[in-house]
Structures are given as C-alpha cells and as structure tokens.
Amino acid sequence: MGAPLLAILLAAFNLRAGISSIGPVLVEVRADTGLSSALAGLITSIPLLCFAAVGVSAPALARRFGAETVIGWSAGLLGLALLARVIGGTATLLIGTLLACAGIALVNVLLPVVVKTRFPTRIGLVTGVYTAALAAGSATAAAVSAPLANAFGWRTALGAWGVIALVGGALWVLVMRSRSGSPARAVEGPDGLVAPPRAGGAPLSHLVRQPMVWALAVFFGTQAVLAYVQMGWLPTIFSDAGFSAGESGLLLSVSILAGVPVSFLAPSLAARRADQRPWTVGLTLISIAGVTGLLIAPTQGAWLWAVLLGIGSGTFALVLSLFGLKTRSPSSTAAVSAFGQSVGYLIAAVGPFGFGLLHDAEGGWSLPLTGVLAVLVVQVAAGAVAGRPVIIPDPPDATTTSA
Question: How far apart are CA 252 and CA 260, in angstroms?
Fold first, then answer.
C-alpha cells in the first residue's frame, strides 16, 4: 500500500482534530474573545450543517478537477483556516471554523472515492484503517489541546492543528502527484481503463430512485445522531446518575476507545461477503443494548453501557466502506457518498438539539433516551436494506470520463 496509504491516514487524522480541539479550550477562548454563549453554541453546530451543505458539491468538483486534487486543495484550506481562526477575534474564529469545516466536508466525501480507486480490492481494510486514524486524531486533539493551552495559550494550542493539517496536505500532494505523473492510476472498468478520480457523480435523478441510496443515507444519519448525542450528552447523563466529572469523562473515553478496534475490523470483515446485514443490524442492536442499559440502570452497569455504545459506534466506519462496496465505479461512489453524507448530516444536526429539548421538557433522561431508541429502530430498518447483497446500478455514463 505504501505512501498513498500514509497520505490517506494523515488526511484522515486531520479530519476531526480541528473540531475536537476547541471544546477543551472553549472557556479560554470565550474569556479572551468575548464570545457569547449563543456564538459558542454556533461553533459547535457549524460542523454538521457545513458537512451537509458543502459535501454535496464534492462530486462536481471531482469531475472538474479530480478527486485527489480536490482533497489536496481542501487539506490546504483546512490548514490555512485553522491558522486564520486564531489570529483575530470572534469574526475570524467563526469564519475560520466555517472554512475549515468546508474543507473537511469535501475530504469526508471524497476519501471513500480515493480508497475505491487506489485499493479496489481492499476497501474494507483501508476504510477501517483510516477511520481508526480519524478517531485517533480526534482523541489526540481533545486530550492535548488543554495542556498545550495551559503552557502556550489557546491560540498556539489551536493553531498547532493548522500546521499539522498543512503538513498532511503537502504530503498528500507530493505522494499522489508522484505516482505515474498523474493524480491517480487508471483502473479497470466495464469498458476498459478509465480515470476514476475525474469521474463525476451519478445524476441525482438516478440516485433518488435507488432504495439502497436512501438506506445508506438514513443509516449514516441515524448512526451520526447517536454519535453526536454520545459526545455531547453522555458525560452529563453519567454525572446526573451520581458519577463525578472525572469519572464521567473517563466513561466517555472508554466508550470512544472501545469503538476503535471495531471501527478497524468491521469494514474489512464485512467486505468479505456480499451480504453485510449481520454487521449493519448486529452493531445497531449492540447500540440499542447500550442505550437501553442507560435508560434502565445507568449507575449499576455504566461501564458496560459505555463499552456497548463504543462497539456500536463501529457503524460509522462500516457505512463509509459501504459507499464503496455498494457502487460499481468511483464516480458513483462519489455521488452516493456525497448524497448519503449530506442527507445524513442533516438528520444528525437535529439529533443533539432534539435530545436537549426532550431533556428540558421532562427534566430527566427517560424521554430523550427513548427518543434515541426510536432512532435506532429506524437504523435497524435502514441497515437491513443497506446491507443487502445489492450493488447500486451505474447510470449509462457513470464510468466514462474525459481526461
């Protein structure tokens, strides 16, 4: 796999670091910039909305410039934006965050395309590896940003992730351009060799007629609902159950760590068979067990529920691999990935907000956790469709392209 895999891993490592790094230093940021509570909340909601709005443009950009070229530009935009957001006040912080998330959104959509292009027979394995790198980047940024801020100030702590993103973008360009003097190799298609990174997305009218596409979008969205509810609310749930702030944070860390090996293994194992329903449905049922435990006995089985929720979070890596496994050509992968992630993140944007509303309405956690269980029932149904041994048909021109 070599250098291209290293470039993919570094690109993935940077996809969440810029987001997860700001939470631990938000108090310092607000004190220094005068950021209001409302704007602080906006910063935490920008990523999901931006992922939905910008990601849908990725196939058109890939058609025009090539998927790997767009990823290189996006990595550069991410790095520059993360640096720009620390040089001024509230305005630059918001604009920088918005531009950084735009870069992330494009890479989110197009990395599965590059995986299908570069590693068509190892989609599950490479997807598992790069989602593990993504989780590692997120966890690292969350863990070290506060100590860095204590030592050097919040601007240095957040700006460091911009430098790392620029290094990753530079490596991406060097590696991908060095192979045969072009952004990527041609790969074998139904009509001979094609140049998939420049292939555009399948027409939207074609996609919306495919039940599998909608199932993938709903599956992506529902798993994201649970993921962002976990990140935003799980420590509070445990705190209200009687755990200290330190224990609550540790429980969240355990949940995240429990998901890393599953995210690494699930895509590779699922790719070994045409029917992925045992994985799509099975991992969702594990999530249901974890949420049910939180609902019934949040204190007695807290560590078990945290682990179960972490195992269930392997659905994120799984659905990313399905974008490639369920499509024939990289162009269709780009289109399905863009559609699935855009629709999915719109669904996910409602999740943490709605969870909070239900909590305010009840004053407890029974109603919001029951709402999450309802979302997971939908996820089971979507997973049962998305995991079927069915390949999404290409439109007539999906595998052809001009240089």
Answer: 13
Q: Are strands 192-194 and 187-189 parallel, antiparallel or unpaired?
A: antiparallel
Q: At what angle do helices 211-240 and 330-362 cross, to 10 degrees?
A: 40
The answer to whether residues 107 and 97 touch, using CB atoms and an 8 Å cutoff, is no
pTM of the model: 0.78
Query: Residue 193 forms beta bridges with which residues?
Result: 188
**3 state DSSP class of 290:** helix
Every domain of the chain and the residues it spans? 2-195, 204-386
Do 238 and 302 meet the contact criterion of CB atoms below 8 Å apart? Answer: yes
State pLDDT tens for residues 270-312. Answer: 988 899 999 999 999 999 999 999 999 999 999 999 999 999 9
CATH class of 2-195: mainly alpha
**Sheet strands (E) in 155-259:** 187-189, 192-194
CA distance 14 to 23: 16
The domain 204-386: what is its CATH number?
Answer: 1.20.1250.20
Determine the longest span between alpha carbons in the chain, in angstroms. 63
Q: How far apart are CA 64 and CA 386, in angstroms?
A: 29
